[in-house]
Design goal:
Layout lengths: L4 E5 L9 E2 H4 L8 H9 L9 E4 L13 E4 L3 H11 L1 H18 L2 H10 L4 H8 L3 H11 L12
Antiparallel strand pairs: 1-3, 1-4, 2-3
Helix pairs in contact: 5-7, 6-7
Pfam families: DUF6003
InterPro entries: DUF6003
Length: 154
């Protein structure tokens, strides 16, 4: 594996490999004399759909014999490249994180409802991945345990 990302040329712009340089955004390397000379030598511009970019961890996917050039990217530029490559995957993970946040806020109430419904604590642990002590604590609170004051006396 290399520490550099690679610019490379594809024969067919419909090839899903890599991200187009324009999809990644402004990259400092595109203004360097080496990259300009490489683009000129191949008769393309950075905006060409034939010019693609892959991060260091994926450069092994570049087809054998493809014209390629190593380019150093800043950490921010690498993040931009990775986001350009997987916008759908990132969106799905962000949705999962939001769903987790939403359900995590209701965790104790859900655990207490599960115990009240008669699901054995060991099964709740298996299904949720929660610690057995957390499930027991939520069950105790749901049954008027020490952290639940229970019904008020009048």
């Amino acid at each position: 594996m290399t520490d550099d990302a690679y610019l490379f040329l594809v024969d067919d712009p419909a090839t899903p490999l890599g991200a187009s340089a324009t999809a990644v955004g402004d990259l400092a390397c595109l203004e360097t004399p080496a990259v300009r000379a490489w683009l000129d030598a191949h008769g393309v511009t950075a905006a060409s759909p034939d010019v693609r970019l892959l991060p260091p961890e994926e450069t092994g996917a570049i087809p054998h014999g493809a014209e390629k050039l190593p380019v150093p990217l800043s950490d921010e530029e690498l993040n931009q490249l990775r986001h350009a490559l997987t916008p759908g995957a990132l969106a799905r993970v962000e949705e999962e994180l939001l769903a987790y946040r939403d359900c995590a806020g209701e965790r104790d109430a859900l655990l207490a409802r599960a115990v009240a419904a008669g699901i054995p604590p060991h099964r709740i642990v298996e299904l949720t991945g929660e610690d057995a002590r957390t499930v027991a604590s939520a069950a105790a609170r749901g049954q008027g345990g020490p952290s639940d004051p229970g019904p008020r006396q009048q």
